[in-house]
Amino acid sequence: MQIASKIGSPSEQRTPCIVVVVHHKKVLSEAAHILDTKTNGLISSLVKRGDLRDEIGETLLINNCPGIAADRLLLVNGGNSKGTSENEFRKIVVGVARTLKSLDIKSAIDTMHKIHISDRGGSRWKIKTIAQEVSAATYQFNEFKTSKRKSSGFNKLTFLVDDASERKTMSLAFKEASGLTQGINLTKNLANRPANICTPTHLAEVSLSLAESNSNLTTQVLEEIDMEKLKMGALLSVSKGSRQPAKFIIIKYDAENPIQMKPVVLVGKGVTFDSGGISLKPGPGMDEMKYDMGGAASVIGSMLAVAIIKPEINVVGIIPATENLPDGNASKPGDIVTSMSGQTIEILNTDAEGRLILCDALTYAEQFNPEAIVDIATLTGACVVALGEHATGLLSTDDNLSNDLLSSGTRSGDKAWQLPLWPEYHKQIESPFADMANVGGRAAGTITAACFLSKFTKNIPWAHLDIAGTAWKSGMQKGATGRPVPLLIDFIQSKASGRDCDEN
């Protein structure tokens, strides 16, 4: 979706739809007042007779209004004219986004960013929130639908500003909104592609193409022979059962004027299809295991976003990519493998493969001497049971890092919830035959998975994001959500700026 800005009067905008706000107690916003005058009091008369319900986020669509250039006028109840809360603002935007989706139009003009927020959200936050919600509501994945492949859908959102000064002031917010929505949509597209298309090789090719089209990105792809030389025995134990070669992808973002801070490293689990291996998953719902590369997709999408936004901090994205399939050569329960770190692992369950590929990637990440490592993975069904689809599971060995990530989740609306990582849980992954086992039983599965990963990040601030419940939706509306790209981008920007990313 293209993000743009435009100077001018709301009555003169030639657009399929212009969005304007009416507050509680029938108070018209400035844009609504202008349009009301041009339409000889149409808006005020409709509001007076109660056609727009007096509830935040309610909308009223008016077609073919005389006196204005727009094809449609969309009124939205914007709450108290003296200020709404951030949660109320999101409700307003979601109401508009749903209506825009139903209209089947390609573009619209917004004035909601003029709403005053009474708590903390500034202009940058409002613009990113509007762009993100409208993009999410109007997103389509039609790559494999022959009847709809040529349909571009909703592709442009324009923010109406008063003058050149306001446009200049808000230009950074427009760039951030554009980068964020493009990163989210790339994440969704990758995750929604079927596993016969989105293979480890495909992830590598997309990552290489990002570097070709963005001069501030460089991509390196390691082959299995390179992984063997690096002694990535844990990762290679997973790829053994697949005819698709594993890929180890490194994407680097080099800031033009980086602050004096070590890079942030993002590590994304890239299992492009997870059958469970020899520990085969049940058949129903196995089609959704194409989403097991959601962590990798979010890292690739985040790297595109940072390339566009250009934060003043270096970022490295690392993606171990493989399939997990049953085969005569596949790992078996009871096998013992040696990780890149030299630590040995008893594989009790081949369906706990994500942590096996991540542990070698985490060891590899240490060479960048990072400020922090954040890994992102659709790792455990236990996290879905614990937190559902609303919050990403967060576990960390560093309180400052976990607090930063939790704050970014709150600001971005991409929430996370912290789970404990106490020493007592480590006992569950002890093995009589190796340094550790790859599973610790049913109890506290999300926590013991993180305990396993923590053994490969002892020297660096590290956090683990379990996105098993938040990376995609199941059922008839199944599809990737693009999470946790908003959280990650807010976190990177806050690290780069040293302040909240919603400031004016």
Report on this structure.
- This protein is of the alpha/beta class and 504 residues long.
- The protein has two domains: 2-159, Leucine Aminopeptidase, subunit E, domain 1 (3-Layer(aba) Sandwich), CATH 3.40.220; 185-497, 3-Layer(aba) Sandwich (Aminopeptidase).
- Helix content is 36%, strand content 20%.
- The chain has helices spanning 30-38, 42-48, 86-103, 123-138, 164-169, 171-192, 200-213, 224-229, 233-239, 294-309, 354-365, 381-387, 399-412, 423-426, 445-454, 485-497; strands at 2-7, 18-23, 27-28, 59-63, 72-77, 107-110, 156-161, 217-222, 247-253, 264-268, 270-274, 315-324, 335-338, 344-347, 372-377, 392-396, 416-418, 436-437, 462-466, 472-473, 479-480.
- Strands 8, 9, 10, 11, 12, 15, 16, 17 and 19 form a nine-stranded mixed beta sheet that branches.
- The two termini are 23 Å apart.
What structural keywords apply?
20% strand; alpha/beta; seven-stranded mixed β-sheet; elongated; nine-stranded mixed β-sheet; Aminopeptidase; Leucine Aminopeptidase, subunit E, domain 1; 504 residues
A few lines on this structure:
With 504 residues, this protein is α/β, with parallel strands linked by helices.
